Amino acid sequence: MDSNSPDRPARPVARVVPDPSTADSPCVAVCSTLFDDICRGCGRTVMEVSNWVFMTQQEKQEVWKRILQEGYPRPPGHQRTRPES
């Protein structure tokens, strides 16, 4: 039986979230600011995303600390609910 056989269940695809100790950027390729100015994939603000390459290591570490505390970065496929007003 080959791996594309309809009798074999599909294997789940691993969702990789960047490790702040090794990744420069928290980007998970889910770039969306659908409801506000926060990317629903990485948790950075629009300004943080656009200025990331110009930020110092200390500034990047501060952003990493905040987004990790807020539960980011989120793997692709994670659903975010609309914030309450």
From TrEMBL:
Species annotation: Orrella marina
Disordered: region residues: 1-24
A Pfam family reported for this protein in Swiss-Prot or TrEMBL: DUF1289
InterPro entries listed in its UniProt record: DUF1289 (IPR010710)
Name of the featured protein: DUF1289 domain-containing protein
Low complexity bias spans: 11-20
Domain of life: Bacteria
